[in-house]
C-alpha cells in the first residue's frame, strides 16, 4: 500500500517521472548481453504472450535474452542482434488505451479517463496539446516503433526475426523452429485465441483518419517491417 502511494506521489512530479524513464533507458541499454538475440519489446504488440511462450522453454536463455521491459532500443545498440514484435499502429494505440484504463491504474493524470472516457474522444482530440502531453507521460503510448528505430535504421540493421501480431501463431512457430530448434509447442495453455485477437476497432472513420495522420511516421516503419516479415 505504501509503495503504491509513493509511486503515485512520484507520478505527480513530472521531472522525477521523466528522470526515472531516462535512467531506465540508460541502464537497460548499457547492460545488455552481447552474444544473444535480444527481444525489442514494442508495447501492446504481443510482447507478453511471446515472452510467456519463450520463457516456458527450457534453456531458452542460452540463445535469447528477454529484457522484461520496453527500454531496450536497437538503435542504441547497432552491433547487437535482436528480434522485434509489430502490430498495426492504430490497433496498438487502441490497445494501449484499454490497457492503461483497465490494467495499469497508475497514470500521471489521475482524471484523464474522466476527460477522455473513450478512445474515440482521445483520437478526435489527438492533436491538442492536452492530449499529447498526456501521451508523453504514459509509458505505453510514448513507446512506439519510432522509439526503437527509423526506417533507415531498420534497413541498415534489420532484425533477425519479426513477430507479426496479425500472423502470431505462424510467426512464433517459425521463430522457435529457427532459433531454438523447437518443432512443436503446446499452445493451449497460453490461451492465444484470447490474447491475440483482431477486434473491431471502436472508432469512427473520422477518428481513424486522425489517428492515421498522427501515427504516419509509425506507419512508415510498420509497413516497411511488415514487408520485411513477409520475406
Describe the protein's topology:
Layout: H1 2-11, H2 14-30, E1 37-40, H3 47-55, E2 64-65, E3 82-86, H4 89-104, H5 112-115, H6 119-124, H7 129-136, H8 139-142, H9 145-148, H10 151-156, E4 161-164, H11 168-180, H12 192-195, H13 205-214, H14 216-230
Parallel strand pairs: 1-2, 1-3, 3-4
Beta strands, count: 4
What fold name stands as the CATH topology? Rossmann fold
Oligomer: single chain
Query: What would the principal axes of the Cα set say about the shape?
Result: globular
Overall mean pLDDT: 86
Largest sheet, order of strands side by side?
Answer: 2-1-3-4
Q: Roughly how much helix do the residues carry, as a percent range? A: 40-55%
The parts where pLDDT drops under 50 for at least 5 residues are none
Largest sheet: 4 strands, parallel
- Tell me the radius of gyration: 18 Å
User: DSSP helix count?
Assistant: 14
DSSP strand content: 5-15%
CATH architecture: 3-Layer(aba) Sandwich
The overall number of domains is 1
How many angstroms does the end-to-end distance come to?
50 Å
CATH class: Alpha Beta
| Class inferred from helices and paired strands | alpha/beta
Helix-strand sequence: HHEHEEHHHHHHHEHHHH
Supply the key terms.
single chain, 14 helices, four-stranded parallel β-sheet, globular, alpha/beta, 55% helix
Word description of this protein:
The longest helix is centred in the first third of the chain and has 17 residues, at 14-30. β1 (37-40), α3 and β2 (64-65) form a beta-alpha-beta unit. The protein is an alpha/beta fold and 231 residues long. The protein has helices spanning 2-11, 14-30, 47-55, 89-104, 112-115, 119-124, 129-136, 139-142, 145-148, 151-156, 168-180, 192-195, 205-214, 216-230, and strands at residues 37-40, 64-65, 82-86, 161-164. Strands 2-1-3-4 form a four-stranded parallel beta sheet. The chain has one domain: Rossmann fold (3-Layer(aba) Sandwich), CATH 3.40.50. The protein is globular, with a radius of gyration of 18 Å. The chain contains 14 helices and four strands.
